[in-house]
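hey so i finally got around to running the thing on that chain from the lab meeting. sorry it took forever, my laptop kept dying and i had to restart like 3 times. anyway pasting the input first so we r on the same page abt which one it is
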Amino acid sequence: MKRTKIFFAYNHTDKPWGGANNFIRALYKGMMKNPDFIVHHNANSDSDILFFGQLSCGPGNVALGSKRLYRFSNIKKLKNESKAKLIVRAVNLNINSSRPMSLKSILLYLKDGLLLDIATIKLLNLADFVIFQSEFQKSFFKKWGYKGERNAVIHNGAPLIFKNDNFSVCGAHTPLQIVSNSNYKASKRHEIIARMSLLNGVNVIHVGNWSDKIKNHKVDTRGILSHEEIVNIYKNSDYLLHTAISDPCPNSVIEALYFGLPVIYNSKKGSSEELIGGNGIPINENNSEETIRLAKKKFVSLKQGLANDRDYYSIKRAISKYTEVFNRFRKQ
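ok and heres what got predicted. didnt touch it at all, straight out
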């Protein structure tokens, strides 16, 4: 059987970047090791499979008209001319990630976000197969116009650098060591992180961008860090604090769980509860003190659960599932 050629449309960077880049990079490098496949980034080369992360070409500005985006018409032309199968990994929609509420935001969405969302839905409906990152993500794509039947939900997996060979079940630190990991936008709810930092018996470190719009109080902000630097912080942490809503499949949560950190998470709209299951506790926004009290009380039992569950969050499991999809379209 000949080797199957896969065009990875998203050209990742090895520099610190967002979750989509981190996952595609790990997937690409994992698929490189599979002798049944040849992976590449050259749209002009012969391919059996076209693998797109929606319309994005890679890290950078993804506004409509950006050079970091493919045009839907060009993808359709490439699919028709190459006769290759089109597989799309769904990422997000503007209407979900930054739902317009004020008149200003509605006008901005109509100007920049609407046409991009329409093109994204058209791409998913054109695809031979769609991979969703969570059931939550699949539900909002179907709500906004995805009509396809050939799809699968595959949760993301963490790079092997987050494998914690020194994982053990022991008591939490005093004070409780909490780390959050996200770049600012309104849906990330950084104001909850700031409030948590004011509680007694808690230290909070934040990785990622922090907005001047939100007073950070006692949060120790570290900025954007490499995986190696994040792992060093995780080694001395008890919990990941994930306050975001509407996230399709947050890689920071996957990485922390694979490392062995339980998660304090926002149980409102989003995929957090689906991904975390019993490996964390929901935030009580009306009573932050109660949230921390439960975190301290349940810490050892949550760590015991993660002793059995950590491997689920590995990139190896995700690559295996993606390979199953790619194998459906292998050249004989």
